[in-house]
Amino acid sequence: MCGIAGLIAQGSQAELERLATAMASAIAYRGPDGAGVWADAEAGVALSHRRLAIVDLTPTGAQPMVSADGRWVMSYNGEVYNAEAIARAPQMAGLVRRGTSDTEVILESVARRGLDATLADLNGMFAIALWDRATRTLHLVRDRMGIKPLFYARTARGTFFASELKSFHAAGLALDIDPDSVASFLRYGYVPAPYAVHRGVMKVMPGEIVSVDGAGAVKRRRYWSLETAAREGAVRPFAGDDREAEDALQALLADAVSLNLMSDVPLGAFLSGGIDSSLVAALMVAAGRGPVRTFSIGFPDFGYDESAHAAAVAKHLGTAHEQMTVTAAEALAVVPSLPDIYDEPFADSSQIPTYLVSRMTRARVTVALSGDGGDELFAGYNRHVFAAGRLAMLRKLPRPLRRSAAALLSALPDAGVEGAARLLPPSLRVAQPALKLQKLAEVLARDGDDVWRRLVSQNDDVAALMPGVAEHPLALPDVDGDLLARMQVYDAATYLPDDILQKVDRAAMAVSLEVRPPLLDHRVAEFALALPARLRIRDGESKWLLRRALDRYVPRALVERPKMGFAVPLDQWLRGPLRDWAEDLLDPQRLDLLDAVAVRRLWDDHLTGRANHAYGLWAVLMLEAWRRRWNAAPGDIPLARTATAG
């Protein structure tokens, strides 16, 4: 795993190298094992690289790398797991390799087979910058599922690209805030792609190629589309019986995990004791590549602690397991550093434990496998079960009756709901019952995709916080099917790449840890998108098929429990140890972007316990903490005032 950066602009050789080097140095933690820069002043281009050495630890794996024929130059972040298979393709015959890196295979495949043919075969996670010296065109490419990040900025001077926004600051770009992006962030807790928080800055979309010529003209096209895969899956759904589905999934996952074990450095896995991470760990053990190391953290101060479940699964599987207990004070100590780790506003509070488990894991290994993607692809979220069950029944009621029920539920005090929930047996309890009941009330009177929009919103009334500002339109895939099917595709196209995967990328890369999610092998995704509803949720049981795959390795009793998530007690923290920090950030005199009265209303209602606005407030607080960190010192190169999703 690495960090990449570069630019297309006029300048001397020394100036281009200086700018590209500065951009890469700003993200040196993504690649502490080496640095490189390549520039061509005549063409007006420079590529830079920071290396985290994983495969081929020798200088033959260093980047930027030039193809044997001299035409192509590449700076690449990621891992391609089937590189050796690609190297054996007929068109690659006679290739004399300089080393054993996947970088070289990708580059020489492009030189011999072309970019499109190469991308069609790649299995992995990647963000690639590829300069074609013959056509003087820069190609920016992102993996199919959006695991690795890639930004680009069109400026008055030229086009800049990088793994993170810090590199644009290092290049001296004047980064103005885009209010529409802020409004979108306040709703979702992240800025949805292709937009970024700054005007003139865009994100390369999952499965996309962005091509920029020497004159700065941009062309965008998809080489793979989740929307297309979902449509094809709906037209040609999996037709086998339950056992055939189990066998097919097990074979796919076993191969995906086996491929993900490619490494020349120590490797392990995150293990929460839940379904997804337990299945990945089990398949690692089944692969028989030597002792498997697993890592987990526990939070006894938070009112729940899943580390005992993880330890039980690890004992059953026979992994070399390590776990760390994290106190509330240790978790709170991470909060001030969040704007440095996340240089675009980001408000998924599980960023805190994700960073902590990454830091712990990096002390032992350089690569960790994760279970990310299982919820989106196999229907694991509570909202998926809700959509397939209770919501489907409730929507049969007349809308006036649903509105009345919503009003009654909204009137229930949060404290009373939380107290009543504690009286339930542990098997029936859910995390944050008051917040879930509040969302239930808000979706009862809604229909269609607006239900999903509310369920994934951190602030539903963004117009009150930013009057007169329009959110960016969210480009949801155009797919048919029931609400459950659409929810899953929407989550996989937006929440997964823009929240979950970016959360993990920034947290892990901050400590120079590579995280690989084998459940997001594109073959697994295509298989999951073709599953009929009965194999996703059955009799109210989420991830029905994935659970059956795990049954082959781990007794059900070790993983069966209510879904808790990886959250922190934000509502309590904001009323307690984070209150002074929050009060400072919510100073009405400094809320330039937000309506101070609306923010104060949220804050007062939360402090008094009238409502739980923890997640909405966390978005506001992360915005303000980020703004104070990154928007204080504009640079000297103005960005283009407009950019399109084109």
SSE layout:
Blueprint: E1 2-9, H1 13-25, E2 34-40, E3 45-51, E4 65-66, E5 72-80, H2 83-87, H3 102-113, H4 115-121, E6 124-132, E7 137-142, E8 151-154, E9 158-162, H5 166-170, E10 173-174, H6 179-188, E11 201-203, E12 208-213, E13 218-222, H7 226-235, H8 242-260, E14 267-270, H9 275-287, E15 293-298, H10 307-317, E16 320-325, H11 328-332, H12 338-341, H13 351-362, E17 367-369, H14 374-378, H15 382-388, H16 390-394, H17 399-411, H18 414-422, H19 433-444, H20 449-455, H21 462-465, H22 483-509, E18 514-516, H23 522-528, H24 544-551, H25 570-575, H26 579-585, H27 596-608, H28 614-630, E19 637-638
Parallel strand pairs: 10-19, 14-15, 14-17, 15-16, 17-18
Antiparallel strand pairs: 1-3, 1-9, 2-3, 4-5, 5-6, 6-7, 7-12, 8-9, 8-11, 12-13
Helix pairs in contact: 3-4, 6-28, 7-23, 8-9, 8-24, 9-10, 9-24, 13-22, 15-22, 17-19, 18-19, 19-20, 27-28
What structural class results from the helix and strand content?
Answer: alpha/beta
Number of strands: 19
CATH topology of the largest domain: Glutamine Phosphoribosylpyrophosphate, subunit 1, domain 1
Oligomer: single chain
Low-pLDDT windows of residues:
632-646
